[in-house]
Structure formats: C-alpha cells, structure tokens
Specification:
- The chain is α/β, with parallel strands linked by helices.
- It has two domains: about 220 residues, Spore Coat Polysaccharide Biosynthesis Protein SpsA, Chain A; about 210 residues, Hexapeptide repeat proteins (UDP N-Acetylglucosamine Acyltransferase, domain 1).
- The protein has nine helices and 42 strands.
- Strand 8 and strand 9 form a beta hairpin.
- The longest helix is centred in the middle third of the chain and has 21 residues.
C-alpha cells in the first residue's frame, strides 16, 4: 500500500520559555524536527510533509529539501493542522502516518509496526499507545468491556477513574487516507475553537469501525519534549542509545555515562574513548585510536592509530599514527600528516604539518605549510598577522626550528635549514643555512651531517 506521512511541527512550545520554536531546539547537535523527518523517511521511503506554524520560515529552511512544508495559519488544533496536507497527499497514498515533531526518540521499527497493523486493519485508524504510570500529559485510551477502543480522553477532561488508566495515547497514528480526509471535515469544534485529531477515534468508534493499536515496548520512545527538563531527559536517552550502539560495534567506551557522541560521528573498530570526551558534528575516527580523556573533537577527520589526549580539535584533518596533547588545540583547516607529534599547549590553525614533523610545546603555527621531518622547538610562533592581513610561512623538509623562534610572515625557510634559539626571523632562510639573532642573520652554510 502506498504510504505518506505528516509531521506536526507547528507550535511555539511556550513551556520551553524560548523565542526559538520548540522543534528547532538542538538535540545532540541536531534540531529536534530533523529526528522526526529522518525517522519517518526511513519508515515510509519517501519525503514526509511537515506542517509548520511558529517561525515557519526558519523551520522550513532547516528542513530544506528533506520534506515538503505546508503552513497552518491560523493555528486551530491538530485536526486542522493535518488538513493542511490534504491538497498535497489526496490520491497520493492509501495510508497516512501522523507524528509530532516533539517526539524525536521514536524508532523506525515502531513506525513500521504501526503501518503494518493498519495495513491489516479493516477499520480506518491504528494508534500508538504506551503503558506507563507516568502520564506526561498524554490522553487516556478508553476501551469497552471487550477491549475495543472507544475514545481518547485528554488529561484535562478525564475523571478520577479515567486518570487511573495507564494506557496512554502517544499521539502517533496511522489512518486510511480516504476515510481521514472525509472525517476531518466532520470534527466538532472544541470550546477553545480548535479541532482535535483525537476526536477522530471517538467518531470511528461511534460509527462501529475497527480501531487498532500498537503498544510500544520501550517507554522512552514516547518522551515528548515540552520543557527544558524534557529536553535533557531525551538527550540522556539518546546519548545512551548511541554509546550502546558503538560498543556493540566494537568501540570501547570506558565510562558511557561520561561520554558524549553525536549521531553524525563515525568511529572505527578497536578505538577506545576515555571519559569526558565530546565527539561532535560529522567527525570521522579511524581504527585503533585512543581518544581522551577530556577531549573535544568537532567535525574532524582522524586516521588510524592516533592518540589524542585532553585536547580540542575543530575542523581538522589528522592522518594515521598522529599523537596530540595534552592541552593542544587544532583549529579549522589544521592538517597533520602521518606520524606527526604535537606536544602540550600547542596550537595549529590553517596549516599543514608534513609527515613525521614534531611540534614542541607552547608553540603556535598559523597559516603555514611545513614539510616532512621538521622539528618545531618549544615556544615557536608564526607571526602571521600584521593587523590587517594574514601571511603565509613556508618551511621545507628536515628543518630544525630552535626554541622560542619568531617566524615573521611572509617567510620561507629552505630545506635542511636551522634557526637558533630565540631568533626573530624576518627574511627568507636559504636551504641548509643557519640563521640566528634578533633580527636573525645567516651566519653560515650547514654541512650534510649538521
């Protein structure tokens, strides 16, 4: 049967106490709404329709080409919101899946099970339920003595006896499309002047139609986010899921409770993650690495066999068998070739360090291209900025830069050259030459073994 999906992403989420639309709040580095978009797309195989309202243009921009967006204006309840997708979906699908964007922990398998039950349902509705003594504001599922679903009673309208019911409506539905579009025209208006999707359940029961349900086994899937506390709760669940999946895939996580790995991260087998490590963005880590403790890695490529200890990496490329830290900082466009050693309290920005190069502690390398097997002494600085422009430093292979050398760009240091400790180099250094002093001067040529 042809399927389609509607994601409701309309409300402001006033309990978030935020100017930002609720569905745009980040969850492990990704806007909340994108979890629903990606999960639903995986479940049905095509783009969903997202109904937007508050900050509609921003939500639409975030969703991009991954969904069709339609507007709800004015905002007259969930039933009215679903109707906004009718013009797009009429005649395009036999089953309509409806979810809310503030429930980002739903699994693909759960939605597929719901769809499968509706395919076998002779009636027009299958709804997702959860058994939980903690109601979280969900409506109660009302059944008759034979167990047939008769209605959904919202918490605010429920009697004390109904409040004692622990089967809850998770606000996720699968409808027969033809019935849905016709029934939406008959929803009664509420005292608040709104049209509620839950009323469709009572309407179907009154007409003697079959209403089926699928009860989710993992209650955490139905955590709805309405407050910052709910957001933190969802982040904790998602973090545990991600960490568990990586451990099952061959990654060692020393302390999962103290490790943060975002969904876009990829990690190779036999890599070990130590506590207080944060792996973010589209980071890619190879095999047999040791990351942390106390390390932050954002959108960085790390090769095999690397060791990164108590450091911050952001937008960098690290080739195989590199060791970094402690307390090093790789800024955007830093590129460390295979076998590079970067000592403690070093910083690299927009620079390439060639294979086998060793960078001592307390050094800064910015806007530089450095050849292989270079020694960068402790306290070395590339003076790359004159207050207006950035300038490039080029260092050839097998160069030895003495401790506390100032390299005033633009500058070239030829292959096999050396600088003396404390030198301020303001002019190019020819290959195999020794430069010393303030300012540095060439004092002699170097022999092959020097």
């Amino acid at each position: 049967m042809k399927k389609a999906a509607i994601i409701l992403a309309v409300g402001q989420g006033t309990r978030m106490r935020s100017k930002v639309a609720k569905v745009l709040h980040p969850l492990m580095g990704k806007p909340m709404v994108m979890y629903s978009v990606e999960t639903v797309t995986s479940a049905i195989g095509i783009k969903p329709v997202v109904v937007v309202g508050y900050e509609a243009e921003v939500v639409k921009q975030v969703v991009g080409e991954q969904a069709h967006c339609v507007y709800q204006e004015p905002q007259l309840g969930t039933g009215h919101a679903v109707r906004q997708a009718e013009s797009i979906l009429t005649g395009e699908a036999e089953l309509i899946l409806v979810v809310t964007a503030d429930m980002p922990l739903l699994r693909v398998e759960t939605l597929q099970n719901l769809l499968q039950i509706q395919q076998q349902n002779s009636g027009p509705i299958t709804l997702l339920t959860v058994i939980n003594t903690k109601a979280r504001g969900f409506g109660r599922v009302i059944r008759d003595k034979q167990g047939k679903i008769q209605a959904i009673i919202e918490e605010a309208q429920a009697s004390p006896e109904q409040l004692a019911i622990n089967e809850l409506n998770a606000s996720v539905y699968c409808f027969s499309a033809d019935w849905l579009w016709q029934a939406l025209t008959r929803i009664p208006i509420s005292p608040k002047g709104e049209y509620y999707l839950t009323d469709l359940v009572g309407m179907a029961a009154k007409d003697g139609l079959s209403i089926q349900s699928y009860t989710v086994e993992d209650n955490t899937e139905t955590i709805g986010i309405n407050t910052r506390a709910h957001l933190a709760e969802a982040i904790e669940v998602l973090r545990q899921r991600i960490n568990n999946d990586w451990m099952l895939s061959g990654v060692t996580i020393i302390d999962p409770s103290a490790t943060y790995i975002e969904p876009g991260v990829k990690i190779g087998r036999d890599t070990t993650i130590w506590p207080n490590s944060f792996l973010q963005g589209d980071t890619l880590i190879g095999e047999n690495c040791v990351i942390g403790p106390n390390t932050i890695v954002r959108s960085t490529r790390i090769g095999n066999g690397c060791q990164i200890f108590a450091s911050v990496l952001n937008g960098a490329i690290i080739e195989d068998n590199v060791d970094i830290g402690p307390f090093s900082h790789l800024r955007r466009d830093a590129h460390l070739a295979a076998g590079v050693h970067m000592g403690n309290f070093g910083e690299v920005k927009s620079s390439y360090l060639g294979a086998g190069t060793k960078m001592g502690h307390f050094s800064y390398i910015g806007d530089a291209t450095i050849g292989p097997n270079v020694n960068i002494g402790a306290g070395t600085i590339t003076c790359n900025y004159d207050g207006k422009k950035k300038y490039l430093t080029e260092i050839g292979a097998d160069v030895f830069i003495g401790s506390d050398t100032m390299l005033v760009a633009p500058l070239k240091v030829g292959e096999g050259a050396r600088t003396g400790a404390g030198s301020v180099v303001t002019k190019d250094v020819p290959p195999n030459s020794l430069a010393v002093g303030v300012p540095a001067r060439i004092i002699r040529k170097l022999g092959k073994n020097e």
